Amino acid sequence: MRQAEFDGRGSRIRWTEVPGEQPARVYVHGLGSVSSVYHAHIAARPELAGRRSLFVDLPGHGISDRPAHFGYTLEDHADALAAALDTAELTGCELIGHSMGGAVAIVLAHRRPHLVSRLVLAEANLDPSPPPTAGSSAIASFEEESFVDDGYARVLHSVGPLWAATMRLTDPRALHRSAVGLRRGADPTMRAILEALPVDRLYLQGEHSGELPGRDGLEAAGVRVVTVPGAAHNIMFDNPDVFTAAVAGTL
User: Fold this and answer.
1) CB of 81 within 8 A of CB of 104?
2) DSSP 3-state assignment of 106?
């Protein structure tokens, strides 16, 4: 485990790491998740062997600190992730981001472009105000104190066992603020940033999640969009072969 201070007050973002060659692959989890849980089985595949790989837990999640004063916006998370990459002495990384982690990766590529050489995005949030069916929408529907008091327990009870297993490792206040930040989005929007980025960009959409809104515009901007057979939101679990090929660049 390694760590880096991210807020000027001693709070630390942490990650586990596998040594290997550059460019490093950096795995970034979604809302209420943990990077190693969602991605270690992918990085362990023989097709991906030999590359330095980092499994970063965003502030408030997993093994990272969860300061009450932190904002947990997409920009805050991106800056904390940048602090981790700076401490790890990395540039030109390949970022593999799932859901909210994909949105954070996009914002990071915009704010610190030299840190990112490639994006592999698995159902990353591209627009503010996701639909009411999104997990972030249910969490953000509470007022913050109400969520901390009893909403967190109610949401934890209502989600499936996989998400609950990692959500219970997320600080309630951090989870709520992250959901609110995700619904607020970035300025410019994640979609606009992604369309303008001058790096290799691959977007994975699960077949069972439906058609990706605005797909034509993304593809016109040079973003490769792939519909993954037999997969829903958690593509790395539903179709690990395709997910691995996407990360390896052989899809």
Assistant:
1) yes
2) helix
